[in-house]
Amino acid sequence: MTKCIIGIDTGGTFTDFVLLRDGEVITHKVLSTPDSPERAILKGLDELGLANSPIDMIHGSTVATNAALEGKGVKTLYIANVGLEDVLSIGRQQRRSLYSLAPTPRAKPVPSECCVGVAARTAADGCDIQVLQAKGLELLNRYLKHERPSAVAINLVFSFVNDQQELALEEWLNQHWPQLFVSRSSKVLPEYREYERGIATWLNACLGPLMQGYLLRLEQGVKQLHPNYTMAMMQSSGETLDIAQAAEQSVRLLLSGPAGGVAAVNYLACELGEERLLSFDMGGTSTDVAVYNQGIGLTTEGRIGEYPVAVPMVDMHTIGAGGGSIGHVDDGGCLRVGPGSAGAMPGPACYGKGGELPTVTDANLYLGYLPHFTLLAGGMPVNLEGAERALTELASQLGVSVEEAASGILELANENMAAALRVMSVERGLLPSTFTLVCFGGAGGLHLCALAEKLGMSKAIIPQFGGVLSAFGMLVAPKGGQWSRSWC
Fold it and tell me: Would the pTM of this model clear 0.90, i.e. be above it?
């Protein structure tokens, strides 16, 4: 029996599938199930008729990303040196609003009661100044019994020079608290800059059990359908990682889905002989913008929400603009689009699944850019009446015609995306007119020409599998990883 290779990208609105079988490429989409993402994946595999077929599966997941953005990680105990327990709360002391005299207090990443200091110390040259004693371990044991965390993050100073103290703590935790998920900074990110190292370690710890649970449920479901299978995960850096290691490296999966699109752009550039591409991935919930300038750029200065993520990841800029972005009237009576999204459920009004608010997709349908006979996600019809009803309500609030309201939504969405493209090009000293614009994502093709005109670009590309290009990218991504260590 021929083995199938399948790339799967779980998005906020749709879950995309690209199947390679006997030299044939087959694409498929199903509505995402954000409450339990594996359900959409298993449904799609079943609809593709792959039961009992041997498969190699490469998967991009948003589980870690969404949990980090929504602050829904598991309860985590943060272990630091005595006197340095509050490093994650202090951060870099940077203000979000420089001139605000009364800034809104930020929530602490880790509550004070879950931060504990241990009496251990390593010098900058790697020599032990103070070694953790039994008394310190007894104190730590009391903290664990009182707080009952699900995970532990260990971040000791100069552990990137000498990791023996962290290793000893990890060994003790594994012996006395085997049910805990343990993450140590000398393994996650053995680099200088204690704050960034600590954030990466904490994110890895608080997201790890969630990824473990998700991957276990997914594997169990896949195994029932496909006893002969292999599974890999897409990393933020654009390479794939074996599923057995993925749960231990959750912090490296935060851009898992979008990285697939960047890998596809890299493949496309090589195939077409293009040296300079400006890409945007417009899905149902967000738009991801990246630059290919004789190669894909990586960064160690990425962010997830308010947190710096210093592990290597593809260099991209993300905004809340997608097909499901909602058009609304602000307190000043002006039209705004996003960042709120209708998501997969109930979705845009034209999906006919209970959505009543006007979205970018509804505007495209009403104005005829999206034909009314279009079938989405492998057969789902669109409802023109539903879109018109939602847009009529918005037009009434604005005091304009329905056509003007729909046009206004598209113009604002395009301007938001053009601004994101300028962040990755003009603000970096790159002239957009010297690049070729590439679109992908389910909604990308509907906005490609308008964005090219806004940026003065004369050439644009719509890939053949543009609607599922991130999933396709997972098929062409190399295996591997990006690792770093500070040299002292």
Answer: no
